[in-house]
Amino acid sequence: MTSPADRLQAVRDRIAAAARAAGRDPAEVALVAVSKTWPAAAVRELAALGQADFGENRAQELTGKAAELADLPLRWHFVGQLQRNKAAAVARLGAVVHSVDRVSLARTLARVGGETGRPVEVFVQVDLGGPEGELAARGGADPADVPALADAVAAEEGVVLRGLMAVAPRSAEPGPAFARLAALAERVRADHPEARHLSAGMSADLEEAVAAGSTLVRVGTALFGTRPLPSPED
Hints:
Pyridoxal 5'-phosphate (PLP)-binding protein, which is involved in PLP homeostasis. Keywords: Pyridoxal phosphate. Helix content is 41%, strand content 17%. The protein has an eight-stranded parallel beta sheet with strand order 7-6-5-4-3-2-1-8. It has helices at 4-21, 40-47, 59-68, 84-92, 103-116, 146-155, 174-191, 206-211, 221-224; strands at 30-34, 53-56, 75-78, 96-100, 120-126, 159-166, 197-199, 216-219. The protein is globular, with a radius of gyration of 17 Å. Helix 3 (59-68) packs parallel to helix 4 (84-92), helix 4 (84-92) packs parallel to helix 5 and helix 6 (146-155) packs across helix 7 (174-191). It has a single domain (4-224), classed as Alanine racemase (TIM Barrel).
């Protein structure tokens, strides 16, 4: 069985190789370790190896781990579907929210950002569809609605639009989907230059995501191993 250090280095090597193959600087691509369903001890182990960014997809699990690991200088990312009644707790932690898919959620986050004086960094999540192109397969806003949603999010003073996020469709080649995402991201950046990041790529498809311009890859299984509980986001 490989060690956490070996797994972390292997993922970093994959990211670096993918970036170089795409003619990019590996330093442009950050790694978010998706620690959902894993105990705080597993996070602490990777943090000791220099990993600082960690992602969770459940608000209760995020707040619990953040409290348990408050002694560490970690940067938390929320990568799951976020209910408005849980949004305030996530925002108060200073977590980066990758899954804004509606204006009402952005406004809730913005309100907390205004109250705390610390604007919430957010990504607009894009629904890339399923194998037949149907929407609502992996969550997110309809691509046709994304430019207007990005405009609305950027107009909120308590949030900062960092870019777009998406999950590749199940049972389909990720490359074409990530290419569509990259084109949409370029369109959004034309109106919002600050939205320069792209959150895409997981354990199985990070190479394709990096080739398409991803600046944050969200990796769980390749870092932690097979999850104790099944989950759609890896």
